[in-house]
Amino acid sequence: MEKTASNINRRNFIKLSGITGAGLMVGLSLKGNNGLGQVANLSGELPAFNLTPFVMIEKSGTITIFNTSPEIGQGVFQSIPALIAEELEVSLDQVTIKQTGGEKQFGPMQFAGGSMSVRSNYTNLRKVGASAKEMLLTAASQQWNVPVAECRAEGGKILHSSGKSAGYGELVEAASKLEVPKSPKLKEPADFKLLGKNILRPDIPLKSSGKAIFGIDIAVPNMVYASVAHCPVFGSTLVSFDDTAAKKVKGVTRVETCERIIGKYKYPAVAVIADNYWAALQGRKALVIKWNHQGNETFNSKTYEQGLRNLAKKEGVVAHNQGDFDTTFKEAPLKLEAFYETPVVSHSPIEPMNCVANWTEGNKLEIWASTQVPGDIIDSFSKAYNVPDGNLKVNVLFNGGGFGRRLYNDYIHEAVQLTKKIGQPVKLIWTREDDTQNGPFRPMTFSAMKGALSTDGKAVAFQHKVIAPSLDASEKENYDKAKPDATMTEGISEQKYEIANMKNLYVYADSHIPYVAWRAVTSTTLAFAHECFIDEMAVKAKKDPMAFRLGMLTKESDTKNVLQKLKEVSNWDKPLPAGWGKGVAQYEFFAGQGGYVVMVSKKGTGVKIEKIYAVIDLGTVVNPDTVKAQVEGAAVMALTAAIKSGITFDKGQTVQTNYHNNQLVRFNEMPPVEVHILANGGSTIKGAGEPGLPPFAPALCNAIFAATGKRIRRLPFDINKV
Amino acid sequence: MAIYEININSKPYKVDVEPTMPLLWVIRDFVGLTGTKFGCGIAQCGACTVHLDGTPIRSCSFPVSAVGAKKITTIEGVSANVDHAIQKAWIELQVPQCGYCQSGQIMSAVALLKAKPKPTDADIDIAMQGNLCRCGTYQRIRSAIHRAAELI
């Protein structure tokens, strides 16, 4: 066996050498190979020149563009390089795309989060491409002794009006000696060849053939495997463990402790190391561990949620105050109150948490991981493990889903501590149970809503009070309960509805559960309460929900545009068949602006989703098809969060363990989604990855109210029994 | 430990492993084919789907000792040049997002088309409901399976 296994490992290593052996990041060569791409060794013996940190052109003509945003499924592997390629006048199949790993020269934006990638890079990276192009143009004009105005760039070449031409590779040495232009001229959108077009993503063929390399696929020589036991009861300490039986498992070599660090929490863990993963897992199951639960073993969701309801009586911290809410509400002729509840949910990317880490002599550390935050790893791990500058290398692989989970480095900490202890490269893989039971999770938010209307049905006062544990308090020790917590009141004071008197509040709830950002963060729960309650106000005002919303939007705004577009594409005013209902919702928050019209029909004791219309407002769009895919996926994720179990706690631990009891929406439950993009320019570019989530659940529940008269105020709910 | 001779993508492999070791880990850690993915370990997500004599199975819950002389096909064995009709349709309709579940999705879809060259929506629902996709690519998978049926 030894022989067979090591032979295979060596072959595996050779196959992956483009990533592991040459000490480089994922390289994707798009040249040849029918444009399908392959992982390539880009170490480059050939002379190469960096015209800017983001573009490398070799004398051979090979062009490399560095992508700073980790690819988590959102398409940045195409959309970010496209920003440079557009201005550089090359097509994407002429370039090699390399994922950066937090290296300082690539700047502070090396992460995937907040729907930030395209909007934060849109102008900067175009300038990068334009600068490189101007340098190549100048080099050619000097070489040919002609005015630069007579030269143009096209398809990786500089062309002169006389018919002379030179490839970028021929010009790059001279170009690299020129100064980088400070304010290069950018192309007019009308001349774009890539931006705004449905360009095929270069990672798709790899992902359709098993060739895409994710973190979990990395193998390096001399590597061992680790499976880590955590205490299922949150907040427990490690008393002792007996590894006698674990060490009897064939293939198990060592048992070591490590610490899972997430936010302010530090959880003890026991790792079983083996020469293959299955052995490590069997060994881990054979561990006998004694934990001290510290009183946390009685914690449960039911009691905690009742606590939140009780906390709703508190005034809380004022998040936003305009006009005079208290007096207006008190004196209003029509008023209503409602209480909304949402669940804790998991991220559950299908690729479990995993990391390969290798600590070598001289305090050198190399990490291979599916991660959203290579820049943060470089910063925080250098400090945490005293790795000198330049000694830490992070290799970012394709992420098998992010959704916010891979913004957090707990699993990477574990792998790093283990490799440091044993002096061998370690591949750590969490099981699905580890992922489901340990979190971190999106917290629940409860919302106490108040609204008041004038006699003619106009909204005059509005209040959204959030009662919830805090993401910031989970992140840091010195959380100040007396101060407003913008993350926990995200978006509730920024909706464009013109309501004169508004007072929004936050009541902090203590917690010992690790809570973190989930795709679209707190907006995913707050929008449910916010936009369902707006619907309740419309009903109270005896107005059509769409007309009621538009009536509160007299000024021009993205929100107004989104609603008007929804009205148009859904044929809102057209009567529906009997037994059907339609609902609308929108939400504007840090990531952008989206909205839905959902149509449902009564089906038995429940409802069936007949049709979903989505509108996302971007201002400017780089790849419309990718954006549509993001919104289609967001609708599915939001549907799961609305109708599947979510995460609950009992006896101090997570009740759910794996996909059988922490279910995701399956294929046969997917309703048809039609996505429309608003990209009419404008000064602000908005995000694509997250805005499709928050308005989905309220649009669905508003539709259910329209069809059945049943107002859903607590998620999750059973769609087959409403 | 025991020695198993198994046939994967028409190539013979010899591995010396525990009889209870799931085929998934044999394929990934011993044979070195990483296109087949680990997602749940309990046959709930379908990321580990491979074919056993043409029938889709969840390799995470299938012990290597049960393979016998049957032939295994993994995503790497679907085509040499990413040109199976399913793969062409996947590229044309830009199905994958993160892509992690897609090897399993494709293995289920390939088996479906073999059994039913012109599948209905109901056929697709049945064949594909064992494969989870957290990115939510289901709608595109459905369209791509219909498109692949045209391409064959």
What does this 3D model show about the protein?
The complex is a heterodimer of chains A (722) and B (152). Chain A has 722 residues and is an alpha+beta fold. Chain A is 29% helix and 25% strand. Chain A is built from 18 helices and 29 strands. In chain A, helix 2 packs parallel to helix 3, helix 3 packs across helix 4 and helix 14 runs parallel beside helix 18. Chain A is globular and about 80 Å long. The N and C termini of chain A lie far apart (57 Å). The N terminus of chain A is likely disordered. Chain B is of the alpha+beta class and 152 residues long. Helices cover 35% and strands 16% of the residues of chain B. In chain B, helix 2 crosses helix 5. Chain B is globular, with a radius of gyration of 15 Å. Chains A and B meet through helix 1, helix 5, helix 7 and helix 17 of A and strand 2, helix 1, helix 2, helix 3 and helix 4 of B.
Helix content of chain A: 25-40%
Q: Identify the quaternary structure here.
A: heterodimer
According to DSSP, the number of beta strands of chain A is 29
Count of helical stretches of chain B: 5
* 3D shape of chain B: globular
Uncertain segments of chain A are: 1-46
The rough form of chain A would be described as globular
Kindly state the percentage of residues in helix of chain B: 25-40%
Separation, N- and C-terminal Cα atoms of chain B: 44 Å
Main beta sheet of chain A: strand number and arrangement?
Answer: 7 strands, mixed
Largest sheet of chain B: 5 strands, mixed
Structural class of chain A: alpha+beta
List the helices and strands and how they pair.
The complex is a heterodimer of chains A (722) and B (152).
Chain A: H1 2-15, E1 27-29, E2 38-39, E3 48-52, E4 55-58, E5 63-67, H2 76-88, E6 95-99, H3 117-144, E7 151-154, E8 157-160, E9 165-167, H4 168-176, H5 203-207, E10 224-230, E11 237-242, H6 244-248, E12 252-262, E13 265-274, H7 277-285, E14 288-292, H8 301-311, E15 317-322, H9 325-331, E16 334-341, E17 354-360, E18 364-369, H10 374-384, E19 392-396, H11 410-422, E20 426-429, H12 432-438, E21 446-453, E22 459-468, H13 471-475, E23 501-508, H14 523-540, H15 545-551, H16 558-569, E24 580-589, E25 592-603, E26 606-617, H17 624-643, E27 649-650, E28 653-654, E29 673-678, H18 696-708
Parallel strand pairs in A: 5-6, 10-20, 18-19, 22-23, 26-29
Antiparallel strand pairs in A: 1-2, 1-6, 3-4, 4-5, 7-8, 8-9, 10-13, 11-14, 12-13, 15-23, 16-21, 17-18, 17-20, 21-22, 24-25, 25-26, 27-28
Helix pairs in contact in A: 2-3, 3-4, 14-18
Chain B: E1 2-8, E2 11-17, H1 23-31, E3 49-52, E4 55-58, E5 71-73, H2 85-92, H3 102-115, H4 121-128, H5 138-151
